Amino acid sequence: ILPRAVAWLVKRKYKIHLRIGHISLPYFILRDVIVSKNGFTIQIEEITVRSSLFSSDVAKLLAVMMHDVRINKDVPVGKDSKEPKEPGLPVDFRNKKVPPMIITFVQFMAVHVENLNLLALGNGWLANGSAESLSLDGSVVHGARTLLASATVVGGAMKLLRHASDACLSQVSFAGTVEATIQAQGELTLE
After folding, report:
1. Which domain holds residue 70?
2. According to the lineage, what is the superkingdom (predicted)?
3. How many independent structural domains does the chain possess?
4. Angle at the Cα of 176 from the Cα atoms of 172 and 179, rounded to 5 degrees
């Protein structure tokens, strides 16, 4: 009953289709989770929540751990000619702060994903990406005007395939860390 109630609340509030297979308590483990919206389908075998209050392995107050995540997207085929957008005015962030919800998330939470697979299917082509591990972490400095974020990928690979006998068009393997600083001063800057 609890998985269906949570799914109903999420659908009602955020208009996102959610299906949860099992919820295990007292350690709060979600199993067989499927999230769908706007042509994206995310399948997650297991989601656990860990805390630095109970484990020294975790640096943040809450760490969301996801295992075996698959993200699928079907790219629609159409002959819609999109009009090029006219360049708008740059967004001005002078005297603006990072929104409180983002500050709370970045200061107290981290996300770790193990075995991530991405799949995009188009007309005659397929893009497939994978990573053994993905970690997202961040912090807020300078009175909530600067956001520091880092993403670490281990064992990443991307392939572009087409539907033919010699299917592989390109393949890239990678690993590394990306760090970004977003400053809310003047125009939006990203370092």
Report:
1. 39-76+90-190
2. Eukaryota
3. 2
4. 125
Is residue 107, in this structure, part of any structural domain at all? Answer: yes
- The token pair at 92 is 């001005």
Tens of pLDDT, residue by residue, the chain (191 residues): 888 999 999 999 999 999 999 998 888 899 999 999 988 999 999 999 998 888 888 888 899 999 999 999 977 766 554 555 556 666 665 666 667 777 788 888 899 999 999 999 888 788 889 999 999 898 877 666 677 888 899 999 998 888 765 677 788 888 888 888 776 665 555 55
Give yes or no: residues 4 and 61 share one domain: no
Q: Give me the torsion for CA of 151, 155, 159, 165, rounded to 10°.
A: -170
User: Is the C-alpha dihedral spanning 41, 116, 99, 48 positive or negative?
Assistant: positive
**H/E run at residue 107:** helix 100-108
Q: What's at 166, amino acid-wise? A: D
Q: What is the dihedral of CA 39, 42, 120, 113, to 10 degrees?
A: 150
In terms of domains, do 113 and 95 share one?
yes
| Residue 32 shares a structural domain with residue 6 | yes
Is the separation of the CB atoms in 49 and 62 below 8 Å?
A: yes
